[in-house]
Amino acid sequence: MATETEAVTITTHPVAMEDVMDARGVLAYLESVPYDTTAWDIYSTFCQYGSIVFVELEEVPSDDRARGAKFRFEPPPKDLSFIINGRCHVLVQGRGSLKEHWTYITFGSLSRNDKMILTPNHKSCAPVKRLKPTSLTFGLFSQADTVMGKKTVRNLDVADGLKLTVDFKRRLMALHLQVQATDPNSPEPKSNYRLDIKFDRFSASRLSSKKIYRTDLDGKRWALVICLDDPPLVFKRRTSMQSAFWGGLLQWTEKDAWLRAVDIASESSDRDTHVSLDREHSGIDIGRWRTFWVEMDHYSKQDWLDIETALADWNIKVIKNVPLKLTSGESTKAELWSILEAEEKPLAKIPDTTSWSADLALLISSSAQSLVRLPFDVRYQLEVCISRGVLSEYNITREFVEKLLELSSSNARIYDNDRARLVLEYAADQGKRIFNPMDLFQDHAAMTYFPPSWQIPEYCALVRKVIVTPTTMYFNTPMVETSNRVLRHFQHVQQYFLRVQFTDELPDGRIMGSDVERDNELYARCYHILKEGIRMGRWHWKFLAFGNSQIRENGVYLFCENEGGPTCDSMREWMGKFSHITVIAKYAARLGQCFSTTRLIRGITSPRPVKIKDVERNGRCFTDGVGKISPFLASMVTQDWQLLDPPSAFQFRMGGCKGVLVTWNDAKGFEVHVRKSQEKFIAEFNGLEIIRCSQFATATLNRQTITILSTLGVDDAVFVDMMENQLRGYNEALTDRAKAIELLQKYVDENQMTTVIAQMVLDGFMHNNEPFVQTLLRLWRAWSIKALKEKARIVVDEGAFVLGCVDETGTLRGHDIATEGRARVGQNDLPQIFLQVPEKGPPGTEGKPTNFKVITGLCLVGRNPSLHPGDIRVVEAVDVLALRHIRNAVVFPIKGDRDVPGMLAGGDLDGDDFFVIWDKRLLPKQHYWGTPPMDYTGPRPQEEPSGVTADHLKAFFVLHMKNNQLGLIAHAHLATADYEEMGANHPKCLELTDLHSQAVDYVKTGVPAVFDRKRLSPRGYPHFMEKSRKTYRSTTALGQLYDMAKREDFRFKASYETPFDSRILKRYRLAPEMLKRARQIKSQYDTAMRRVMGQMEIDTEFEVFSTFVLRKPRYNSDYKLQERLGHESSTLKQVFRDLCRKEVGGSRDLDALGPFVAAMYTVTYEEVRIALFEARNEHIGPDGRRHLRHISPRFMPLISFPWLFNDILGKIVRGTGYRPTLAGLGTTSASHKKLSKPPTAPNIENEMAGDDPNADGEVDYMRTAEGLIIHRGEVLHLFDHDSDAGSESGDDEIDPSRNSSAADGSEVQRQRNGRANGTVAEPLALTADNLEYLSGQVGEITLAERVEKVGEREPELGERQYPRNPEEPAREKSIEGSDEEFEPEELEVGLDFDGPEETPLDRFEQLFCAPSSQRKNGGG
After folding, report:
1. Does residue 461 contact residue 487 with C-beta atoms inside 8 Å?
2. Parallel, antiparallel, or unpaired for β 799-806 and 889-892?
3. Closest by alpha carbon to 201, among 214, 191, 189, 211?
4. Between the CA of residue 78 and those of 81, 208, 254, 1392, what are the distances in Å?
């Protein structure tokens, strides 16, 4: 707690007047001003004497006292005439009249020009450095060494012209510029803008292009070239400064003089139309022109060199002496947009005449017909590549577009008409800039690329998504997601749905709510897009609706209407009858029900709904949101979800009904019993949809619950002791198998992943140091400790986190209102609950049928977040025989004066989770048992009597973005409760609790919570909240817990070098064809996993697989991220489990599935082994340079693939097997070229090396000159080396001299011709001799025959020849001439989607790579 004397006050430190004039800035103190003085009064009084950058008024407890004030001049004022005998006057607006007030003024706290700060390397540097550029050009790289300038700004005047500021203290770089309005009648002829580029924008990234270059132009000029992946934050200076002083705030800073902007010098007409990538921009398109050419004179060179030296300490490297060129492109228009059809327009009818009008019509018609009409999916994927900077519209030619059209035509010769889309998907997945788009068609990996999601479960859908930021938008490659009712019903037009998420610029996360006008431009842009839509050529997406979860993430659905198809209006009409709803927020919420992520239960066309009555008493509903489901239907859900144990409760949607269904025997057959509280509207569709099933998770504490429990008298030592035990347990679990199993089974997370890891440990994978399992264990520990540090997330062993339901038998005792406020409440006065949870058996019983136990005795029950002292209740848990069929759900009484869920932070039973804790140490002192619950009455909802329209929904969505103050209120409550002695009982906390409830209900009522910053802002922030100002060191329980947990520096590197499990590698004889199919599916899986990682901004596959994410999410809370990732990860796993099972005929038996799972494990092991070899042996990459691979998740193969079947792997290692031969593992004969491993290589597993797979040996693989892996009879393309040559920070420099047209004599060309260089192992080009070498013992077939089958001639060096299809002529495919490198883990193999027809690569392998006994006859 903080004491009252620690309140924020104004203190002075007088300095001599002569020192003031020599300082960079000076703080002035006013001894006393009237209480009603505002920050604007002080600013307006003194701004005429100098530049003021800061004003603050002292906080005083009542309005009858004067207050102190302070403000900062920067630089110090030249004119001090306002000081007379140590006093000055302040003009105070006061309560309606202007008055003059005199007060004493002193100066102190100088900001000296020579004051230095320390860099991360403890070197001194000036906090701020400024340079004056001569010009600033906005543009983009049109080639690797050429910047196309699109707009140049020069100095307009000395004061407000161009300026480059590097602020080391705030860790950002800022560009200031003044731009003249394009409209001569504009009320603002000149506008001042500021571009903020944070230092972390230059952080390393594998595919990043963000860099700073320095290039000399001539003896007098030089330039900085700043290249960014994402636009900077754009600000515009206010023209009226008074508007920056709003709401009577006590503090104002110079940053309040700036407003967020979404463009630079654009005309207002730009905003009156749809948003599209091809829209002409009248001003500076800062969202797309992300390269800044900053030109300077030679006088500023030394100052920049000092800056450059300091930047290096922040790990920002400036690439020097790069010969870059700047070309003028202000009048250059992208040819692409004139080639592609923009809008659907009927062609002119050609009359049957020879007149001049007919000639004109013919000319118009031929012109229109020359436009290229790409298919929807191809055009969409092209926009993905352009919006993400992979392709530039200025590099795309007609030839490229027509090639896309050719590959997408019905008679396309390569993998039907999907090849154009797949090539673009490949480019988008690589994420690297392609300067010559035609190179894609010469890239074998692109031309043989297959999607990861070609087979989608019926409960999933391919969803297209666009991220809209203040300055641009990013199209995303479609992702497989669990579908919803709307997507399922309109699946025939499913591709035309678009999920849009509004965010700040990508590195800055979500757009936060704001009660000031500073961010109004951001909200206006969002509304504009909802109003006008998004256009892509002739396709125009319009606003449809938003789900209840989407609005919290600033997301909506748009739909592209097509002639004769459904419209947005007709879709909303189909969703249900909403005309009776006049509250806009409630109308939106009811529409949102249809967008809940659900799974439709197969085999149930329509359940039989039976209406039953709600139980209501004293104006409260005891059955709010809960109904019944028959045991028969419950068993169908269990079967459909492939669950072992039938759940007791289900969160569901059915037509216009929502909530929870609990299994009860009085519901028969297909019956679903629903209550009035569950029926929200009438819908045409009435299928049974399940969101989730009841399951057990361990209860955890958090900062809010610890604050409440401390207020209720629980001693701090209890929390400290729990933290110590938990930290000790995590440390022991890394080495003690029994401890690991105990904690993993005890600390069950919401996605049940700890139980999965526990089973892996039980199977012996921890004992064997299996790399994937070891990594998951260490990740689980790091994630848990991170949650302890940042959230105080203490796991409660004796606790559960479960769904809530109601006692339909009426047995449980309810709440007695007479106990509220009573000093002493006995156990017999408490309400009762029923809870039955899994019982953890003794060691050795894991994996056996689950036993359940009924909890009895005193318990705590609550709901997150709990902010009021009455939100956590003491109850009595009892055993009721009639309720024993309910498991993993807490049953609340139907009796009493007030429903218990409603007392728990305003909960209900329509899907809320509750924590139940029976750890006696956490019980509040008995005199707190009668603490009254919060009695919150929400505001009257805002209604629209004339009826709700789509325009109302759009406005509500944007206003919710702006007015959402939930996070601000929660933080203020936490800080105030920690600061004040009364804790959560402090009056300010109680007021904040009411305000928090209003903010939570905003999505239902439409009435925002108004946070009074002047009254409710915390007086200080505890150190555990990690704020930058007004902080103090807290000594409360939360402060102690924060200090106990140390952040883990989690690294993944070591696990790659531990042995794979030889028990799996030795278990089966694996046929080559099975290994080939495993590699093919792994390639798809890896691509799908990387897409999830990329779109959810997660660093590693281990985090996606386990849902234990270490990085703080930008758009959601940690809980919401884990919940959503649970859905994504589960869907990804299920898709590929089904695909793998299909390979063995759909069987789940060990005998059928075991060999294929072992093949999955084997091919993963091979990839890792090759990667480890390449980490210690220089090799030639696809770019012709020498490389060493980095052992880190960014550069290593993905290894989670076989663990889709962790249960099968466990059964394999628990069984017995025999040691396979080399042939049994699918290897070819020893005629492959082998590379000896150096003595320093790690002792990794290698079945091919001899009897022991873990023995040192040789790596049986070969790289071609193009970087392809030739391994065990397969042609693979596994790894990307684009960042391997440099440091792991990925800061390789651009060498403009290296491009796709390198000289024949260069090292690149020499290596691509297959000649050895130095001591590096020589890659082999695919010459005839090398094909002879690769084929091994080919039996009867001769090289001449093989060449004849390939194409009647021997391939030249570097050329790849494909066997032709019998129906078509031979076509040559070159893989030369491209500098674009390949993404890791892409297998160069074809998938046979349509049956037995062979792909060209299949035939290549049959001819050249398979043993003769398996080679097909015939050549084609």
Report:
1. yes
2. parallel
3. 211
4. 9, 47, 20, 80
**Residues paired with residue 130 on neighbouring β-strands, in sequence order:** 165
Other Cβ atoms less than 10 A from the Cβ of 569: the count is 13
Element of type H or E holding 1263: strand 1262-1263
CA distance linking residue 969 with residue 1011, whole number of Å: 7
Residue count of the chain, please give it: 1420
pLDDT in tens, 1277-1293: 344 433 333 333 333 33
CA 592 remoteness from chain centre: 22
Phi-psi region of 480 (alpha: psi -120 to 50; beta: other; left: phi over 0): beta
What's the DSSP call for residue 1231?
Answer: T
Instruction: Dump the DSSP string for 509-571.
Output: -SPPP-SSGGGHHHHHHHHHHHHH-EEETTEEEEEEE--TTTGGGTEEEEEE--TTS--HHHH
The closest alpha carbon to 916, from 807, 814, 804, 824, belongs to 804
- Based on C-alpha coordinates, what's the Rg of the chain? 34
- Encode pLDDT of 1036-1047 as tens digits: 999 999 999 887
Query: Residue holding tokens 């097909």?
Result: 1416
pLDDT band at 563 (very low <50, low <70, confident <90, very high): confident
- 10 Å CB burial of residue 809 (0-12, 13-18, 19+) is middle
Pick the closest to residue 831 from 911, 894, 915 (CA basis).
Answer: 894
Q: Is 1041 exposed, middle or buried (0-12, 13-18, 19+ CB in 10 A)?
A: buried
Structure-block tokens of residue 392: 């530039």
Count of alpha carbons within 13 Å of 945, Cβ hemisphere only? 0
- Asked whether residue 1061 carries a pLDDT value surpassing 50, the answer given is yes
Q: Which residue type occupies 174?
A: A
pLDDT score of 1319:
33
Model pLDDT, residue 1115: 65
Question: Is the previous residue joined to 120 through a cis bond, with omega within 30 degrees of 0?
Answer: no
On whether the CB atoms of residues 680 and 646 are closer than 8 A, the answer is no
Give the mean pLDDT of 926-941.
91
Q: In the beta sheet, which residues pair with residue 800?
A: 916
Residue listed under structure tokens 């001693």: 715
Query: What is the helix (H) or strand (E) element at residue 399, kind and residue range?
Result: helix 398-407
Residue indicated by tokens 């007060």: 103
Contact yes or no for 481/488 (Cβ under 8 A)? no
- Expressed in percent and rounded to 5, the helix, strand and coil fractions of the chain are 35, 20, 45
pTM of the prediction?
A: 0.79
In this predicted structure, the answer to whether residue 689 has a pLDDT above a threshold of 80 is yes
Residue in the block written with tokens 């897409």: 1091
How confident is residue 1330, by pLDDT bands cut at 50, 70 and 90? Answer: very low
385 token code pair? 């590549």
Distance CA 638, CA 650 (A): 10
pLDDT of residue 119: 87
8 Å CB contact between 1250 and 1222: no
For residue 947, CA distances in Å to 582, 1008, 1322 come to 6, 21, 75
> Worst-scoring range by mean pLDDT, 635-644, 1059-1068, 1117-1126?
1117-1126
Residues 6 or more apart whose Cβ sits within 8 Å of residue 1402: 1390, 1392
Structure tokens at 373: 């009409």
Q: How far apart are the first and last CA of the chain?
A: 83
Identity of the amino acid at 1129: S
- In this structure, are residues 1013 and 693 in contact, taking their beta carbons and an 8 Å threshold? no
Residue 343's pLDDT band, with cuts at 50, 70 and 90, is: low
Omega cis (within 30) before 75: yes
